[in-house]
């Protein structure tokens, strides 16, 4: 339930498609290169706005709500005293992390996908979203990283339990599960610290509405070519795709053979 729900949610959002790093592809986010020549009121074509309204504004939010409900049910069931075990502790941690990922996905992509096509949520799109994006976006990447490595940890524990049952009693304990969870969260936070400096906010006075609007932009730090090549492209590819995929493939193959 937990894994299925979060996969459905992220499949409809730029969490996967843009690696949570391509600011210029996230709805109303602009690149800093054109900071002096664009207006925050500039929107995409009607076709793109309609597509994002369906995928982000409708599907992501709809599936996200069901994902939150599924995770809540999972946490309630797994938290029962008779369900106390190391694997269930990790699954509860995964459910909590996935819940955070769903919420941040809805804030970053779900709700902003509504306004450009429907005209609803003007204040959120132009006043709330630009200010919270700089904080919610790094939190989303932290949740994403933690979710990936918690999934790896669950597979590793199942591998030990199935292929090395005699060592499972000492390695797969409730106390060790806590250490694994805390370690993964700390690693995820440290790995994604640079994300906090990737964005900035542009303000613009609009006389037509007699109000000031805002839009998120890439920072000059995010525009650095070395940073993009090393951190955003190569490190992300290795840490978020190659290493987890190979690890899961090897562990599951070993479990299947056993």
From TrEMBL:
The keyword Transmembrane helix applies. GO terms for molecular function: G protein-coupled receptor activity. GO terms for cellular component: membrane. This is Uncharacterized protein. It comes from Dendroctonus ponderosae. CDD domains: 7tmA_FMRFamide_R-like. It is found in: Membrane. PANTHER family: FMRFAMIDE RECEPTOR, FMRFAMIDE RECEPTOR-RELATED. Its main location: membrane.
């Amino acid at each position: 339930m937990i894994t299925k729900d979060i996969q459905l949610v992220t499949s409809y959002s730029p969490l996967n498609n843009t690696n949570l790093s391509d600011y210029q592809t996230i709805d109303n986010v602009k690149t800093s290169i054109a900071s002096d020549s664009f207006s925050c009121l500039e929107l995409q074509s009607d076709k793109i706005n309609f597509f994002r309204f369906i995928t982000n504004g409708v599907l992501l939010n709809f599936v996200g709500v069901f994902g939150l409900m599924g995770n809540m049910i999972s946490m309630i069931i797994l938290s029962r005293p008779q369900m106390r075990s190391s694997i269930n502790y990790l699954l509860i941690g995964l459910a909590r992390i996935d819940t955070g990922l769903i919420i941040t996905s809805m804030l970053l992509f779900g709700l902003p996908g509504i306004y450009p096509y429907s005209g609803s949520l003007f204040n959120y799109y132009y006043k709330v979203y630009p200010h919270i994006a700089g904080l919610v976006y790094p939190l989303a990447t932290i949740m994403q990283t933690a979710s990936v490595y918690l999934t790896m940890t669950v597979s590793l524990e199942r591998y030990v339990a199935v292929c090395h049952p005699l060592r499972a009693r000492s390695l797969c304990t409730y106390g060790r599960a806590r250490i694994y969870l805390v370690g993964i969260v700390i690693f995820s936070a440290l790995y994604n610290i640079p994300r906090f400096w990737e964005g900035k906010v542009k303000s613009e006075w609009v006389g037509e509405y007699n109000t000031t609007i805002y839009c998120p932009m890439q920072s000059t730090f995010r525009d650095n070519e070395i940073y993009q090549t090393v951190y955003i492209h190569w490190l992300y590819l290795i840490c978020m795709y190659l290493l987890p995929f190979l690890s899961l493939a090897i562990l599951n193959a070993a479990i299947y053979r056993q």
